[in-house]
Amino acid sequence: MRENQYRQDREGMMDLLQQYNSMKQGNGYAFIEEDAFEQLIDYFDEKDDLSSALEAADYGIQQYPYSSILQIKKADLLIVKRHYREALVLLEKAELLDRGDINLYILKTDVYLALDQQKKAADLLEKAIHLFDGEERIELLFELADVYDDYEEFDKVFNCLKLILEQDQTNEEALYKICFWTDYTGRNEEGIKLHQKIIDEHPFTELAWFNLGAAYQGVKLYEKAIDAYQYAIAIDEKFDYAYRNMGDAYLRMRKYKEAIEVLQKVLELTRPEDVIYEALGHCYDKLKNYAQARFHYRKASHLTPEDSHLHYKIACTYMNENQWESAIKNLENAMRIQRSRPDYNFALAQCYVQLNKTKDAIIYFSNFIKARPKNIKGWKELINCLYDAGFYEEALQQVHNALKNTTNKPLLIFYKTAVLFAMGKSKEALLLLELAMEKSPKMIKQLVELEPSLLQNHQVISLIAKYKNNRSSK
Questions:
Q1: Residue 7's CATH number
Q2: Which of 149, 206, 209, 243 could join 236 in a cystine, given CB atoms 3.0 to 4.6 angstroms apart?
Q3: Has residue 28 got a pLDDT over 60?
Q4: How far apart are CA 92 and CA 362, in angstroms?
Q5: Is residue 352 part of a domain?
Q6: With 90 as the cut, is the pLDDT of residue 280 above it?
Q7: In terms of C-beta distances under 8 Å and separation of at least 24 residues, what long-range contacts does 380-385 make, across chains too?
Q8: CA–CA gap between residue 206 and residue 297 (Å, rounded)
């Protein structure tokens, strides 16, 4: 049956082409219907023979000068050839002949966008959507949404998609798109109401449940989000994005075991992805199952070997297990990809401290400080390292540098006190300790952690007691 239809169509087109060629050659009178010219234009267009298609359009318009359809078809061909202004003139003529052809507005929109006249495109479509209803109105609303996206009127993109869904609540394309734009524009409250209304009418629309979950997630109502995702999965048990988002919701609730369960389901349903393996690694990390965390971080790293942060995360799992040499190897891998990352330098320095490789530790703490001179963490660790190694002169110099860069943090005054005591400058140290206690008495703990033996100095004990008594009396 289909073969017969195909043969008839082919024979019909051959007859039409013969008739058309006869007309062009002037061999007798040849009358061709208006819709036959449309077929000829489409035939040549499908064969990517634009010149012949345009020629057929010209012959057609010559015979049917009041045909809006032929004018529109020629304009379409001119747009393909980037003759935008010529196309616009034809479309203006077609509009005078018939304002009810949706293609007229779609093609004019294409021309305006090509000429970088987004405002004209938007104005045209805003008026046109009131001329049509049903599927044609929806088509124009999608066009208008794309125009708004093009010139970054993102709230209006959301509005167009909302109008589509108010007219056609299960429109799949609109449901897919509005999920992104709800999140992007932050209009989650509207998204919740819109999708609740859709679900009331169409309770088995899994995309609506998914979008509802995403909107709840956008306002941090994670338990409600998870409930919505579970409805989506109940309707479509292979809805991998619902599992993925549910995993993220569990992560944010710090329910790592539940997150692992749904993220494993994502891996069953889709191709392996680095972000899923990394999320699984993070869950195991938080559960202090460092071997499993490493396993999943490595899986992620195999998929994205250029991601230095995964090597860093593997190193951190080794650091949590006091496996310093293994941590260093992975940090070196990370730094081969991104040498200047401050957190990599800091972690490497910490490993060298644990291995009593003071000089190496000093180098990497210094690298961290060069990148983040206002960060007290780096200065604290560097001074600590120098102090423990007995490099008191250098420690004192770094305290001065730190005070300049961090606006006189009280911690540094306590550290300077410890260094002065270690250098035998007790009077100066006691005066400075009094100043430090006035600024932040609670930080005395930091001084004691650095040098516990100071608790055996009766002058230090007296000074601490004085400020403790003062606080008690207040």
A1: 1.25.40.10
A2: 206
A3: no
A4: 75
A5: no
A6: yes
A7: 380/411, 380/415, 381/346, 381/349, 381/350, 381/353, 383/412, 383/415, 383/419, 384/415, 384/450, 385/349, 385/353, 385/358, 385/361
A8: 32
Can you state the angle between helices 274-286 and 290-303, rounded to 10 degrees? 170
Residue pair 310/300 in contact by the 8 Å Cβ criterion? yes
CB count within 10 Å of CB 396 equals 20
In a domain, 363, yes or no: no
Indicate left, alpha or beta for 322 from its phi (over 0: left) and psi (-120 to 50: alpha): left
* Residue 40 located in a structural domain: yes
Q: What is d(CA 375, CA 387) in angstroms, rounded to the nearest whole number?
A: 19
Q: How large is the average pLDDT for residues 230-258?
A: 97
* Structural domain containing residue 43: 1-98
Nearest to 37, CA basis, from 5, 3, 72: 72
- Summarize pLDDT for 450-465 with one digit per residue, the tens: 999 998 999 999 888 8
The pair of three-digit structure tokens given for residue 211, joined into one six-digit string? 């979008």
- At residue 471, the pLDDT reads 57
Q: Work out the average pLDDT over 328-335.
A: 97
User: Would you state the pLDDT for residue 321?
Assistant: 98
- The residue ranking higher by pLDDT, 49 or 6, is 49
